[in-house]
């Protein structure tokens, strides 16, 4: 994540402010806890959608109203997001799906992340004089975009097993329209475009050095589009129309693939037509742990879903209700659990086709208890390794009237990915492959046709064998931490989904360009709590009240008794929860 804050105008908090006092050995923390939301929780009896952009939410709800299923709606939202939120995702990126089929009572996971090129080797980069893979540019775009393969495979699965599928071309109608006719630029897009033509870090920023970026995302004066101005993407419109009429095969084996590869190779990159033609999305088994009376599901490696579940597995050993939400102990315990989970993640996580990952033992109840025993409530553990910052994403959730549910994440890694748009396609290429290490002893070292470590991890929480909470967030390193915040606040403290999303958040880690870790905490967290955490050894750094440094979270809760769906969206982003 990036420590660039966006001030969000929020309505005054309403509701009761309570006070709690808790004891941690000899330490006492007295704090005030506000549990009121600025936005109301959205509720419906039929379908529910939440995404980080209101136009994508509307596109998805329109599909549900037209009779489409949850997967149709998810593709409608995802394709729209790829157009209207270009700084956070693209059809040139990757995606991961959790899909619950209400007919078969089955939860499936779909890995639509791309593998590195057949020509992507450590030697290739070292021969060019690199000690690490460049973060931006054509050399950073060394893995196949997987997103379209995910849309295609999920659609075919739903069409075969769920029924009520709309025509493939219809689910992308909104995306095509917004690419052709334009849409009003959000403040988020303006801010991140401005940030990425900055001069503070030329390796990560200064994206106007790429002609394709400048021509696509800057106006005729080579300046960022302002919020409210109309932004059109004619090349992307043509590409989406081809995908809508000819299918995903056109992206991987047709003219789109040929155009992308030709541009990449003309600029010294490694992607080949064979890389595209051989790419497939894969069905994999979800992973899970018990949390209280619920079952938490997440995505297996190559994603950090194992870390998100490990945090919950550790927290199972603490009585959070007794600790109290919003107390210094609450933040301390989750941050310490995060460090322990991340240590295992960084030791083992990579492509499971290349490395053996002991998931069963890492997520066992016994191991969770062992890790919990290492947490000292009076002081912090000093981790020896810096936590690396890791990129931007969109998460969306859909539940249809039949109970089919989707938790979907789509990403290009850094904001604006590699910074290059493939010629004649409008496809912004991701830079996920730049996260590979050129150290052959590193667990995530570069090899041909390998999937990199991914921070993306869509989540669901089950109760009595069915989805109870569909949730997730963008935010790289913050994803497992925000997921823990949502689950604990909803399950342990009874927050509504909107209250849980809006409640003060934190981020343990470091941001782009930083040399050390810190614990970023939103300003609504009280001074008494932050000072207590400093006493325990946490390097606290206070940030804005609703900063998008914390990511854009969302959630849908399904009441098992009434079947009412409650949706929430994050005021830190541009999203909306919409039901019907």
Q: Please, could you describe this protein's structure?
A:
- The protein is α+β, with helices and mostly antiparallel strands and about 575 residues long.
- The chain has a domain at about 15-40 and about 285-390 and about 455-580: Serum Albumin, Chain A, Domain 1.
- Helix content is about 30%, strand content about 20%.
- The chain has 19 helices and 23 strands.
- A hairpin with a 6-residue loop joins β21 and β22.
- It is globular, with a radius of gyration of 22 Å.
Summarize the biggest pleated sheet: 7 strands, antiparallel
Percentage of helical residues? 25-40%
Low-confidence stretches: 1-34
Distance between the termini: 34 Å
Strand content: 15-25%
CATH 2nd-level architecture of one domain? Orthogonal Bundle
- Tally the helices: 19
Short summary of the structure?
The protein is α+β, with helices and mostly antiparallel strands.
Features:
580 residues; alpha+beta; Serum Albumin, Chain A, Domain 1; seven-stranded antiparallel β-sheet; disordered N terminus
Annotate the secondary structure layout.
Layout: E1 17-24, E2 27-34, E3 42-44, E4 48-51, H1 54-65, H2 70-84, E5 94-101, E6 106-112, H3 122-127, H4 147-161, H5 173-181, E7 183-184, H6 187-195, H7 211-217, E8 230-231, H8 234-246, H9 249-253, H10 255-266, H11 273-277, E9 282-284, E10 287-291, E11 294-298, H12 305-315, H13 320-323, H14 328-348, H15 359-362, H16 365-372, E12 392-399, E13 405-413, E14 421-422, E15 427-428, E16 459-463, E17 466-473, H17 479-492, H18 497-502, E18 506-509, E19 518-522, H19 527-535, E20 540-543, E21 553-558, E22 565-569, E23 576-579
